[in-house]
Amino acid sequence: MEVKIYDTTLRDGTQGEDISFSVEDKLRITRKLDELGIHYIEGGWPGSNPKDVQYFREVGKISLTSAKVVAFGSTSRKGVLPEKDTNIRSLLEAKTEVITVVGKSWDIHPLTAMDISLEENLDLIYQSITFLKGHVPEVIYDAEHFFDGFKGNKEYALETIEAAEAAGANCIVLCDTNGGTLPFELEETIRKVKSTIKTPLGIHVHNDSNLAVANTILAVKEGVVQIQGTINGYGERCGNADLCSVIPNLKLKMGTECLSDERLRKLKEVSRFVSELANLPHNKHQPYVGDSAFAHKGGIHVSAVRKSPLTYEHVRPDLVGNKQRVLISDLSGESNVLAKAEEFNIKLKKGDKKTKNILAALKELENRGYQFEGAEGSFELLIKKALGLHKKFFDLLGFRVIVEKRGDESSPISEATIMVKVGNRVEHTAALGNGPVNALDNALRKALETFYPELKEVRLIDYKVRVLPDQEGTGASTRVLIESWDGKANWGTVGVSENIIQASWEALVDSIDYKLLKEEEEGIR
Questions:
Q1: Cβ-proximal residues to 128 (8 Å cutoff; 6+ apart), any chain
Q2: Cα distance between residue 83 and residue 450, in whole Å
Q3: For residues 7 and 235, what is the distance between their CA atoms, to the nearest angstrom?
Q4: In terms of pTM, does the model score above 0.90?
Q5: From edge to edge, which strands make up the β-sheet containing 425-433?
Q6: How far is it, in rounded angstroms, from Cα 77 to Cα 83?
Q7: pLDDT exceeds cutoff 70 at 362
Q8: Which residues contact 471 (CB under 8 A, 6 or more apart)?
Q9: Among candidate residues 2, 14, 27, the one with its CA nearest the CA of residue 230
């Protein structure tokens, strides 16, 4: 059985808190979803805002290979014929070959929210779909609040979708709009609907009970042929069904045809792309597509997974465009160190004295507050120093950092002065910054770029400070994690000290050492 994927990231997903896409963002996401192989892309509600009107105007100029763009809107209003209704007219003006129209299935909505009779609501559903079917080849009907409506008034809920079927809807989508339906309730409801409705069914589930993915999978098991959801589960309140989990579950676990193998390998890429345009951090713990989804930390786990990934991985990570990662921490065993060394193209042997020394040094540093999970650049340097493979690129002769504030209303001024020695030459310089660490970073780069111009490529893209738990109050140790990027790769480094400037200095020096060492190993310098 083939299942069609209907993505509503650009409409329902944007109703999530902190999420907003520009028209250009929506167009870029549309292209990316089309590359992934999504069948339907719900672009927005053209009757609700100028941005969506502009989107539909622009998206018509894009050539898509697999996806159909869908305009979304509601049934016509009380007392207004569909051909006169501004919302219905805006759907047609969007010029899409597919239109989704939403109507009420729960009797409390017509009677309370819309102030119309139950019979009038049925007429609105029937007339709206009939009219739209006369103008576009495909109309999808979203039965809003269907599962709650079915619980409250089963007969009427069924009448609403019978009206949609009689009007010629191509697919009827059962919506768990409030996200409160339990799996066994959903299963029983779909079975009863199928005994009455012959039109193909779809499912649209919200995640308020943390069951959206499970309910979507179960709906497919019960014969639903269209699934609606969003990339990364974005959506109002607790979000929608996360297509980044639903799709691989269907494809890899149930053997359901929905995406090709080749396109499935783009899943993580698309997930990260959407989160970047949403300006939200990508969830590293997200199943299938998160950075931690196939990350192993415990020594026993790493030892086993190096022999057979099946021991601790439920699918191959490359199938969804992800990769296996080995983490380094105080929980590490020799297997972790050997696995990381292999990643760095360094040969170590199990049981070797050097391997044991590296592991002992790692555990000692972690005990002092260092953390190498997000600082693999520092860990690679640690190994190379232990093996005598590290080169010192400069000597610090001294630095001074000054923070000055003049008056209550003025902003502080940060200045760093630094003196370094490279070979027989000494460089003494100063720089300003937004803060003391930024000033120190600017001064260090300014001093070294004379000798190592490739450092101009390096950008500090993330800086995190963690106060380590102890009883010293403001004198507590701090851990600084830095992520750097040179346009080709990114790497993390770490420093720990009671003095935040010293901790930052350690991480900054490791970042520069890592870049210069890589350049030398690759024969660039």
A1: 75, 76, 82, 85, 88, 101, 103, 167
A2: 72
A3: 12
A4: no
A5: 395-404, 413-422, 425-433
A6: 11
A7: yes
A8: none
A9: 14
